[in-house]
Design goal:
D-Maltodextrin-Binding Protein, domain 2
């Protein structure tokens, strides 16, 4: 099927997707109301975006420029949005952008399925299910993952339309959203070589239009091509204090299966339902052979990307499975829709049993799909779903520094997202993400003591449960000789733990 989608022919499908999009936007609006409760890691990007918008560049509230965010494109987009609409907080802009990107990804998926020869019902069924799944994934709207998903599917759609220059530009944007996006470029070039039999320089040209200027700037400004976060994740794994991705997801497999299962809202105590759901992706692959172009790029890319992380053996984090989960979920919807289409054909049979059987099988398949989808939507109604419980104590910590510290004061701590965004202090990151000099120290049992002696922060935030990383530096003579305890903030986190604030003498 070529050309544009025939709106009249697919009117019902488009209406259904429009309704699902409105549902998703409604959920996103609820998330925007709680923009102060996003994941702590997201605020690292928000802080860089704010500093860029204010003309300070990629700095974390002072100090030398550093590419301490995994997603420079999202930081730049948010900085631009903040300059245009300064009244809207950057986290709220990020959530709105994430919701729109998710909707765009699902509509692009629908268009690509149609172009691959899939009938309108199957394509719309898959797109609607993916849109409603976004209601559950709402806690990730503030991250770069929805944007990455949209750019991935849009780039593949541009390839199918033979818009190679546009596809290359989108791949360049994909790379700047997350570094693993570069893996799509050789896959796309190989796909073109197999199907077009010609080398298309325009793909590479489009990619370089975006990537080359940024790479030159990155080398000049940061003396590095890649974000510092990648080196930090490798160093975290090498330290032995973080579980490696191979140990977590290749050998044990617990996080991979558990993450995909929970994201798809599968209940482990319902083994039949779980088995049925995880059988559907295989059916989606087998029964949608005309869509192999899409599957080869959109659904194969998460596997290649995940394999890259396995090869690097970085520290294990749950978001490495997000694209895999989306691929499994979409293939499950695709397989279910094909089975419904096949079973529905029996309703036109000549015998009553065949008609009844077709209706019953179709109804069972609908129920199999609707159960997790309805559960996803119902979960999204819960006001506290996906909210970071560190928000209130960490904002209280930032507020203390807003009152008692001055701009330019340095503060050392382990988790720096909220602290960076909600205060103006210069943060020294003991986990190494935004402070490159710390990265090489990860794994030392006296990390906290070394950082305080080398960086000389004016303030140090100590939380005993993080001693596994930093060591019990707050009890060492060298630390006590140079710092005094000036405040303690009680929190329900860490079994009613205490955040201690120490000030240099």
């Amino acid at each position: 099927m070529g050309g544009m989608v025939n709106i009249g022919k697919h009117k019902v499908a488009l209406i259904a997707q429009a309704i699902c999009s409105i549902v998703l936007l409604t959920v996103a609006f609820q998330v925007i109301q709680k923009w102060q409760y996003q994941n702590d890691d997201y605020y690292i990007t928000f802080t860089f975006a704010r500093n860029v918008a204010e003309g300070r560049g990629f700095v974390y509230n002072g100090g030398a420029p550093i590419l301490g965010t995994t997603t420079p494109l999202l930081a730049l987009l948010l900085a631009f949005g903040s300059r245009l609409i300064p009244a809207i907080p950057i986290p709220a802009l990020a959530i709105a952008l994430g919701a729109m990107a998710w909707i765009g990804a699902c509509w692009a998926l629908y268009c690509h399925l149609l172009r691959s020869g899939i009938n309108a019902f199957v394509a719309s069924f898959t797109a609607c299910g993916s849109l409603l799944w976004g209601c559950w994934a709402r806690s990730h709207f503030g991250s770069e993952h929805p944007l990455f998903l949209f750019l991935l599917i849009a780039a593949v759609l541009a390839l199918s339309l033979n818009r190679y220059l546009i596809a290359g530009i989108l791949m360049g944007c994909l790379y700047l959203t997350r570094g693993e996006g570069i893996l799509l470029l050789p896959m796309a070039i190989g796909w073109v070589a197999l199907n077009d039999r010609k080398w298309r320089w325009s793909i590479l040209a489009g990619f370089l239009i975006i990537v080359l200027p940024w790479s030159i700037y990155s080398v000049i400004a940061f003396n590095a091509l890649f974000p510092n976060t990648l080196g930090a994740k490798v160093a975290q794994r090498a330290s032995g204090m973080w579980q490696s991705i191979r140990d977590a997801w290749l050998y044990r497999g617990a996080y991979l299966g558990g993450s995909i299962g929970s994201i798809m809202s599968i209940q482990p105590q319902l083994p039949f339902l779980t088995t049925a759901w995880f059988s559907l992706p295989a059916l989606g692959l087998l029964l949608s052979r005309r869509a192999t172009r899409l599957i080869a790029l959109v659904f194969l890319f998460p596997v290649v990307s995940f394999s890259g992380y396995l090869a690097l053996n970085v520290a294990a984090y749950p978001w490495y499975t997000y694209l895999l989960a989306y691929g499994v979920h979409s293939l499950s919807l695709l397989g279910a829709a094909w089975l419904i289409t096949l079973s529905w054909k029996f309703t036109t049979g000549h015998t009553v049993p065949s008609r009844i059987g077709g209706v019953l099988v179709s109804a069972c398949l609908f129920a199999l799909v609707l159960f997790p989808v309805i559960r996803q939507v119902s979960l999204s109604i819960q006001p506290n779903l996906g909210l970071d419980n560190r928000s209130e104590p960490y904002r209280a910590l930032a507020q203390w520094f807003n009152v008692n510290a001055v701009e330019g004061d340095t503060v050392a701590y382990v988790e720096v997202g909220y602290l960076g965004y909600f205060s103006r202090v210069q943060v020294i990151d003991m986990a190494g993400l935004v402070t490159p000099g710390v990265t090489e120290l990860l794994g030392r049992h006296d990390l906290g003591e070394v950082v305080t002696q080398r960086e000389h922060p004016k303030y140090v935030v100590h939380v005993a449960p993080f001693d596994w990383l930093t060591g019990p530096y707050a009890a060492t003579p060298g630390f006590l000789d140079n710092y005094k305890l000036v405040n303690e903030i009680q929190t329900e986190l860490w079994n009613n733990g205490v955040m201690q604030i120490w000030k240099r003498l």
